[in-house]
Design brief:
Blueprint lengths: L5 H10 L10 H12 L2 H5 L1 H14 L18 H4 L17 E10 L4 E6 L10 E2 L12 H5 L9 E9 L4 E10 L8 E4 L10 H10 L11
Parallel strand pairs: 1-5
Antiparallel strand pairs: 2-3, 2-6, 4-5
Length: about 220
C-alpha cells in the first residue's frame, strides 16, 4: 500500500496524465499510486520505493517547473508525453460566491451623534451593532426602494460604496448620509468619536471608516 501525500498525488497524476480536477481525481490517483507500488521492484523494497516516490515529488516532480529532463520516469510519463505535466494535478475552479446588495444609512445630529441599532440576536452577525439599513438581497436597491426603508426623512445623499466578503457571499453596501436637527428614529445614539467601543462587525467598521472621514461630510441639515 503506497501512502498518498501531496508529492505522491502529483507524481501519480502526471505519470498517468490524470487530468480530472481535484478532488474528483482522488480515487483515480489513489488507484494509480497503488499500481506504481505493485511493480515487482517496488514490492521487493516497499519502504525504499515509497521514500523514493516522496523524494521524486519533492525534488524533481515539483509543483511548478518540474525537472522532466532529469526525471527517471520521463520516458513513461503520460503527462510529459502530452505536454501537460506542469498543469497536473488540476484543481476545480472555485465556485463564484453570490453577490448581495444592501443600503445603510449614516444619520448624524448636530451634537455629532450617529444612529445605530442592534441586529437580531440570531442569524448572521447576531446581536451586533450596525448602521440602520435595508435587508441584503440579490437585486440592487433602487433609490426609491432604499429610501423607503430609511430610518427617517432627511436630505439623504449617496456617500460611498463598501465591498465586503463573507464565507458564502459577497456584499456591496451603498451608504447614504445625512445630518438632521434631531434623530427621532428607533435605535440608539453614540458619539462618532466613541464608535471604536461599539460591537461593530468588520463590515460596519468599513462603512464607518469610509463615511465618517473628513473628506465625506454628511450633508446639510433639513
Amino acid at each position: 500500500m503506497v501512502p498518498v501525500d501531496g508529492n505522491v498525488e502529483r507524481v501519480t497524476a502526471r505519470v498517468f496524465a490524470i487530468d480530472t480536477p481535484l478532488p474528483g481525481a482522488k480515487p483515480a490517483i489513489a488507484a494509480g499510486a497503488q499500481a506504481l507500488g505493485s511493480d515487482p521492484a517496488a514490492r521487493a523494497r516497499p519502504a525504499d520505493f515509497t521514500q523514493a516516490l516522496f523524494d521524486l515529488g519533492a525534488t524533481i516532480c515539483t509543483p511548478t517547473s518540474p525537472a522532466c529532463a532529469i526525471c527517471p520516469w520521463r520516458d513513461g510519463c503520460a503527462g510529459r508525453a502530452r505536454g501537460i505535466a506542469a498543469e497536473l494535478p488540476r484543481k476545480a475552479a472555485k465556485r463564484a460566491r453570490p453577490l448581495r446588495h444592501g443600503v445603510h444609512f449614516w444619520l448624524v445630529d448636530p451634537q455629532g451623534r450617529v444612529l445605530l441599532r442592534r441586529r437580531p440576536p440570531r442569524g448572521l452577525l447576531g446581536g451586533m451593532t450596525e448602521l440602520p439599513g435595508t435587508p441584503w438581497r440579490a437585486e440592487p436597491w433602487d433609490l426609491a426602494a432604499a429610501l423607503a426603508l430609511a430610518p427617517q426623512p432627511a436630505a439623504w445623499r449617496a456617500a460611498a460604496q463598501v465591498a465586503h466578503g463573507f464565507t458564502h457571499f459577497e456584499l456591496t453596501i451603498t451608504l447614504y448620509a445625512a445630518t438632521v436637527p434631531a434623530i427621532t428614529a428607533d435605535g440608539f445614539l453614540r458619539p462618532i468619536d466613541a464608535l471604536d467601543g461599539e460591537a461593530l462587525p468588520s463590515v460596519m467598521r468599513k462603512c464607518v471608516a469610509v463615511v465618517a472621514s473628513p473628506a465625506n461630510p454628511p450633508g446639510d441639515a433639513r
